[in-house]
């Protein structure tokens, strides 16, 4: 179970970092969301993964740590507000600048593109 959760956290982190490094605002926002999910899952897993544990205190059943669960609930609310703010900021930048690139400038086309002629020898 721990290996599966660690693998999922790794995949979410990898995809999130890849998307954050893109040049447009929408992939950056999605990447931030994936990184937030990865961090929340990491904090939640740090409290201990218990299968068939007690949700309420009971004798003889293992109980996971409730502090990481409370931290994740708080992080979900804060992450949702941050993502909503980033989306509104990206929409405003798109409206003001006319494009959705992170730095606000369109990339320049290559000066001397390679030309390949297909079908002629």
Describe the structure.
The chain has three helices and no strands. It is mainly alpha-helical and 121 residues long. It has a domain at 2-49 and 65-97. α1 (2-20) packs antiparallel against α2 and α2 runs antiparallel to α3. The protein starts with a helix and ends in a 24-residue tail after the last helix.
Give a quick rundown of the structure.
This protein is mainly α and 121 residues long.
Mean pLDDT: 83
Number of strands: 0
What radius of gyration results from the CA coordinates? 22 Å
Strand % is under 5%
The level of helicity is 55-70%
* Largest sheet: number of strands, sense, barrel closure: none
What is the succession of H and E elements?
Answer: HHH
How would the blueprint of this fold be written?
Layout: H1 2-20, H2 25-46, H3 66-97
Helix pairs in contact: 1-2, 2-3
Features:
121 residues
